[in-house]
Design goal:
Length: 295
C-alpha cells in the first residue's frame, strides 16, 4: 500500500526541525534489551512546515516550555522525579533564528497533549490549533478540575482549536487507514496514530514534487530501534497505561508501529521521531533556517 504518486505540478512542503528542549528518557521504560539505569538524553523536537505554493506556516509540536515550573503541579512533580529536562532554546527562540515570531504561524498542530510536546501556546495568538479529537476528553478532565492531572484544561483556546474527530474527512493514505489531507492538494496529511495517548496524531508530508516524503511520527516510538525492529516496546516499567508501558494502549501502538516500519523501508520516505537522538546528532543543517533534505 504505497503512498500516492505525485500529480502534475504537485505541491509539496519544506520541513525544518526546531530546537525545543531535551529530556532524559530512562531506556528500560521504552525499549527491550537495555540495562536498567541507562538513560538517553533525547531532544524534544518540533517542526516548521512551509507549503511550496501557499504562504501558510504550520508548526508541528511545541516541545518543552522554558519555564516548565508553570506546567500543572502533577507535571512538575513528574519532571522532577522521572524525566529531568533542560531547555537551552525553546520553539519561540528557534523560530526567531529564521526571522519568524509566533504571530507568523498560521497553524499549530500538536501530536498529543503530553507536557514535552505542548510547550507554551500563549504566544501563538493568531494561530489555529489542530489536535486529535480524543484530546478534548483529556482537557475536560484536566487540571484544576482534577488537581492531580498532568493535562491543563485551559491549555488551548477552544474558539481557535480544531479537534479532528469522526466528522473529519479521513481517507486511506498508504498503510494508514485514517489520514486527513490538510491543504486538499496531497502535500500534507494528518494521520490518526492511536496507541500512545488518546488523540495522538502524526504528520506525513511530501518533501518534493517528484516523490519524496517525510513521516513525523511523534511519540509513536520513543527510540529508533523500535522503528528498525531491533527492539520492542518495553512493558512493566512505566505507568502510562494498563500494560504498564509508555503507551496508553500497547496493542494499538504496536499495530501503528508496523505501519511506520513499512514507511521506513520504503524508498524516499524519511521517518523522524519526536525524540530522535540520531537525527539530532546527524542532521545539524536540518534546523531552521535550514531544512530537512528531501530523499
Amino acid at each position: 500500500m504505497s503512498l500516492p504518486a505525485p500529480a502534475e505540478n504537485q505541491a509539496f512542503c519544506n520541513v525544518s526541525a526546531l530546537e525545543a528542549g531535551y529530556l532524559d528518557l530512562p531506556d528500560h521504560m521504552f525499549i527491550t534489551g537495555v540495562q536498567p539505569g541507562n538513560a538517553t538524553h533525547a531532544p524534544s523536537l518540533a517542526f516548521l512546515i512551509t507549503h511550496s505554493k501557499r504562504p501558510e506556516k504550520f508548526v508541528f509540536d511545541l516541545g518543552i516550555r522554558r519555564d516548565w515550573g508553570n506546567y500543572t503541579p502533577a507535571t512538575v512533580r513528574w519532571i522532577k522525579e522521572v524525566y529531568p529536562c533542560v531547555v537551552p532554546q525553546n520553539v519561540i527562540e528557534s523560530l526567531a533564528k529564521g526571522g519568524l515570531s509566533p504571530t507568523d504561524v498560521d497553524t499549530v498542530c500538536l501530536s498529543h497533549l503530553h507536557w514535552d510536546h505542548v510547550g507554551d501556546v500563549e504566544p501563538f495568538t493568531k494561530s489555529t490549533f489542530v489536535v486529535g479529537g480524543e484530546s478534548l476528553g483529556l482537557l475536560k478532565t484536566g487540571y484544576p478540575t482534577d488537581p492531580n492531572s498532568r493535562f491543563d484544561e485551559h491549555l488551548l483556546p477552544l474558539d481557535r482549536t480544531r479537534f479532528l474527530d469522526d466528522r473529519t474527512q479521513w481517507a486511506q493514505l498508504g498503510p494508514f487507514p485514517r489520514a486527513f489531507d490538510f491543504y486538499g492538494d496531497g502535500s500534507l496529511y494528518i494521520v490518526d496514530a492511536p496507541g500512545h495517548l488518546p488523540g495522538h496524531i502524526n504528520v506525513v508530508a511530501r518533501t518534493s514534487a517528484d516523490g519524496g516524503w517525510i513521516c513525523l511520527a511523534g511519540d509513536s516510538a520513543h527510540h529508533c530501534k523500535l522503528v528498525t525492529g531491533e527492539a520492542h516496546i518495553a512493558v512493566g516499567a512505566s505507568g502510562h497505561g494498563p500494560a504498564a508501558c509508555a503507551h496508553a494502549d500497547k496493542a494499538s501502538a504496536d499495530f501503528h508501529l508496523t505501519m511506520i516500519r513499512s514507511l521506513f523501508r520504503t524508498p524516499r520516505v524519511r521517518v523522524v521521531l519526536a525524540h530522535d537522538t540520531p537525527f539530532r546528532k546527524e542532521q545539524p543543517d536540518a534546523f531552521w533556517p535550514g531544512r530537512i533534505a528531501s530523499l
